[in-house]
Amino acid sequence: MVYLALMWSTRDRQHIWHPFTQMKEWLKTDPIIIQKGRGNWLIDVNGKRYLDGVSSLWTNVHGHHHPKLNKAIRKQLHNIAHSTFLGLSNTIAIEFAHELMKWVPQKLSRLFYSDNGSTAVEIGTKIAFQYWQQQGNPTLRSKTKFIAFSNAYHGDTLGSVSLGGMDLFHRIYDPLLFKPIRLPFPYPLQEKRSIEESELAALSQLETTLKLQGHEIAGLVIEPLMQGAAGMVHSSHSFLQQVRTLAHQYNVLLIVDEVATGFGRTGAMFACQKAGIEPDILCLAKGISGGYLPLAATLTTETIFEAFLGEHSDDKTFFHGHTYTANPLACAAGLASLQIFKQEQTLDKLQPKIKQLQAGLIAIAQLKGVAEVRQEGFMVGIELRGGDPALRMGARVCEAAIAKGVFLRPLGDVIVLMPPLSLSKKELELLLETTKACIISSYGH
Ligand SMILES: Cc1ncc(COP(=O)(O)O)c(C=O)c1O
What is the model's pLDDT at position 50? Predict the structure, then answer.
């Protein structure tokens, strides 16, 4: 066992280039190498278990090695693993799309498949752009720009990076990017204002921009209720509602990126529904397959879809597609995941756990090392009193938690808690207690 673990570790360091990782540091470490998953736990090559406190990067919904998900994938494998979606369709992709329509906001009726969150947003952006270019009224064709928010994160392909507003990740690529109109997303703690003041200021700037430039703006892209990668930056339901109203008023398409918030994370199936709004374009990925396989979907209204209909010679086709679009195994996982939501009443069972999480966070919010705790459903950001980024307090707390068998990954000085929805009450207690203990030990009080 020890020999095998050493082999994995050596070969990893020999060949692999890890995402979002300073490899010089990585090469000095003895990486944790996962071999199995059982329920809400990850198990490494040494047999050590880690509670999956971030749902394997916000993807896992019902736990690992779920019998129903496993069975659905095996059954699909018996039929076919993959066939192209260009010029062909496949039964399971149709079935999944049909089922998903029962869960999403009513206005959305068309689904375009891809494989990850970045492409889901990239596709939404291209559809919005092309939609206006294909309008009969020529003045509408000047709608070519996009509004995106400060600290937004929409993925790593160049279109999604253009919309993203995270300087650390994106500044190097600046010469390669298109430039959206960047507006402030409310961040009361950083702005040292109340949430009301912060949201009011952001909305006022949005309204002014739309008044002046609405005629040249194609779409507005937003992460609803929680800006994820920014550090779980929270905004109110009313903020999202007012963004919806303003976009509608100025004839701008609202593109909602629910890659992180979708599939129950906020306590509702989608954050849009929690806030009572309907987007024009909805981007989904991560939890869409229960966290099993790469899959994404960009959903639009029928009106948007119809703008792409025409003769071949009209050149209205949406010329976009990926090799593994609508992969049958991933769609089988997606369909099984929706069935589990229904059969196991996942969202109903989640509500008392959200309350338990909220109650546990009260004690964490009072710790000296904690500046602010932000929660929306099962998504939590614990912002530490960082001060000097070189101290890497977020990383230190997470390293301490990992040593205790709870896998956490920070966003700068923000500790993220985003466990699978299937987490038990006991596991939730462990997650909260470990997080608290590690913040206390890292700050020395
Ligand atoms: C809101 C949001 N959009 C898009 C993405 C990109 O998704 P992916 O990593 O699957 O490309 C992420 C990833 O964290 C995200 O949080």
Answer: 98
| pLDDT of amino acid 291 | 98
**Interacting residues of 49 by C-beta distance below 8 A, sequence separation 6+:** 41, 42, 43, 405
For a mutational test of ligand 1's pocket, the pick from 114, 235, 286, 288, i.e. the residue with the most ligand atoms closer than 8 A to its C-beta, is 286
Cβ contacts of residue 35 below 8 Å, gap of 6+? 43, 44, 45
Q: Which of 323, 343, 363 marks a domain boundary?
A: 343
In this structure, are residues 121 and 221 in contact, taking their beta carbons and an 8 Å threshold? yes
Per-residue pLDDT at 54 exceeds 90: yes
- Could you tell me if the CB of 223 is within 6 A of ligand 1? yes
At 350-366, the pLDDT tens digits run: 999 999 999 999 999 99
Share of the chain above pLDDT 90, in %: 96
Is 428 part of any domain?
yes
Asked whether residue 386 is domain-assigned, the answer is yes
The residue range of the domain holding 126 is 70-343
Query: Does the beta carbon of 227 sit less than 6 angstroms from any atom of ligand 1?
Result: no
